[in-house]
Design brief:
The protein is an alpha/beta fold. It is built from 14 helices and 15 strands. The protein is 33% helix and 16% strand. The chain has an eight-stranded mixed beta sheet with strand order 4-3-6-1-8-9-2-10, sandwiched between helices. Strands 11-12-13-14 form a four-stranded antiparallel beta sheet, covered by helices on one side. It has a three-stranded mixed beta sheet with strand order 7-5-15. Helix 2 packs parallel to helix 11.
Length: 493
């Protein structure tokens, strides 16, 4: 297939990066010069949302262009059905040889999901039941537990070492492509997806990166309401994770470390972009940067993700394509991760995923086609029998125009007007003047999503898990795409 007019793809996907902690999104403290430069060369999306505020469901939605309830991937223990085509399958069908360097976070035997080649791999087990990574002194600190605030600050986590390997291999792949281009043998466009772990906690950064922000770090802008006044699910969440009261020193230290991790993530992205430029590959390369979800960073009295506030559910999204997308743009349209999938396939002239709900926003930003009317809406869902109350959590959010509505099964809903209240401080769900919009948005949330059916399907999956995990423990299946993390990679200064 003649690939002369189709772009190369460099798709960089980080983990747990809140857009609020990025220079081009208005953060005046944290240094992100490489992402800022990328933003200046393309378009920054100010209202991009993940499909789920936890890792695996979000990433599998990005791969498949389907929402979690359509994939039946709701938790980090659920695997994506190999029969579901992904963006990598579509790229391959279009003649690309898609490569993945680093994190996918897929659970189960299919560790490619359409990629023709994969390098470095994941830090964790490929199969549920195989031993997870030994984080040593940083055990527990990667997840929602107060210990991750206690054991924060200067040091090192294996996640950063992983990403340094990912960066080196990606630079090596680009250098190899540069050699082929200079030799005149690079005839087809390339596709490289880069999966980073950072700035995912542990909230531990190398001393020099931590020191950049330790003395200047600001406290959260949105103070925590009294626990008894908070939404009942969020009240349960704070109590169960031990953050009803957070020590100011711990909060500032964790925030400074997170800022250091964002700075280091940006520096590694800079190395990759520099290799792209130095090898003469930047022209006609579609570059996409995004993340799987954000991090609350103490706002509203919360840390980590798992909730639908902007810091958790919104993600950075920067798209650059020299010669095709004009630089210096900001897009206010509400977009979803499934739209990112549809857009990259549209740009690459690859077949659309047949059962995807994603929409290409390329006509909205490239100026080459008449832009159709855009429905300013995005959905996200959080359903779990792991990190939730005993009865589980079955929740879904819709962002429609300036409104955000959050449905909590078994709990009161929340409603925010982000135009009038961008800080999400005023819940309008009981406002008599908002009854009509609340009803409209609830109907939209429940139109194709039935929480009791989700609960039933999740119970079936949970019943299957013991056999799958016992099988892995007993048979020891090959961990072919696992990066060799070591206990001593994790330490606190």
């Amino acid at each position: 297939m003649n690939g002369s007019n189709r772009p190369n793809l460099l798709y960089i996907h980080s983990d747990q990066h809140s857009p609020h902690v990025t220079g081009c999104y208005g953060d005046e403290l944290v240094d992100t010069p490489n992402l800022d430069r990328l933003a200046a060369s393309g378009v920054v999306f100010d209202n991009a949302y993940c499909c789920s505020p936890i890792c695996v469901p979000s990433r599998m939605s990005m791969l498949s262009g389907r929402h979690p309830f359509q994939n039946e991937v709701w938790t980090n223990e659920h695997g994506l059905d190999s029969r579901i085509p992904t963006i990598a399958h579509a790229m391959g069908a279009a003649g690309y040889q898609p490569e993945l360097v680093g994190r996918m976070h897929s659970v189960g035997p299919d560790q490619l999901h359409g990629y023709a080649a994969r390098f470095v791999g994941d830090h964790g087990a490929n199969h549920p039941g195989n031993p997870g990574p030994d984080r040593g002194v940083l055990s527990v600190t990667a997840g929602p537990h107060h210990l991750s605030l206690e054991r924060s600050g200067p040091g090192q986590s294996a996640y950063q070492v992983h990403d340094e390997d990912v960066t080196a291999v990606t630079v090596g792949r680009l250098n190899r492509l540069g050699v082929q281009k200079r030799a005149g043998v690079l005839k087809e466009p390339f596709s490289i997806s880069v999966g980073l772990m950072l700035p995912h906690p542990p909230y531990v950064a190398r001393q020099e990166d931590y020191d950049r922000y330790a003395d200047s770090m600001t406290p959260p802008r949105k103070s925590a309401p009294p626990v008894e006044e908070q939404h009942p699910f969020l009240r349960w969440w704070r109590q169960s994770t031990g953050i009803e009261v957070m020590d100011e020193v711990e909060v500032r230290r964790a925030r400074a470390a997170y800022a250091g991790l964002v700075y280091r993530t940006d520096a590694m992205i800079g190395q990759i972009l520099q290799a792209l430029r130095e090898n003469g590959l930047e022209e006609n390369t579609l570059i996409i940067y995004t993340s799987d979800h954000g991090d609350m960073q103490g706002e509203h009295g919360l840390f980590w993700k798992h909730v639908f506030y902007e810091e958790s559910a919104r993600v950075p999204l920067i798209v650059s394509w020299p010669g095709r997308i004009a630089g210096g743009q900001r897009c206010e349209r509400v977009v979803s991760a499934v739209d990112v999938a549809a857009t990259m396939l549209d740009a690459m002239e690859a077949p659309a995923l047949p059962n995807s709900v994603g929409r290409s926003f390329l006509p909205q930003v490239d100026g080459r086609r008449d832009a159709p009317n855009w429905d300013n809406s995005a959905f996200s869902e959080y359903c779990t029998d792991k990190f939730g109350p005993p009865e589980g959590a079955f929740q879904r959010m819709i962002r429609l125009e300036e409104w955000k509505y959050i449905y909590y099964h078994g709990y009161p809903s929340q409603l925010f007007n982000l135009k009038e209240d961008p800080e999400e401080l005023i819940d309008r769900s009981e406002d008599p003047g908002c009854r009509s919009i609340a009803k409209e948005l609830q109907d939209e949330v429940l139109r194709d999503w039935e929480p009791n059916e989700v609960k039933r399907k999740m119970a079936e999956k949970s019943a299957d898990e013991p056999i799958l995990t016992a099988w892995a423990r007993q048979t020891g299946p090959e961990e072919r795409y696992r990066w060799p993390t070591q206990r001593e990679m994790n330490w606190l200064a």
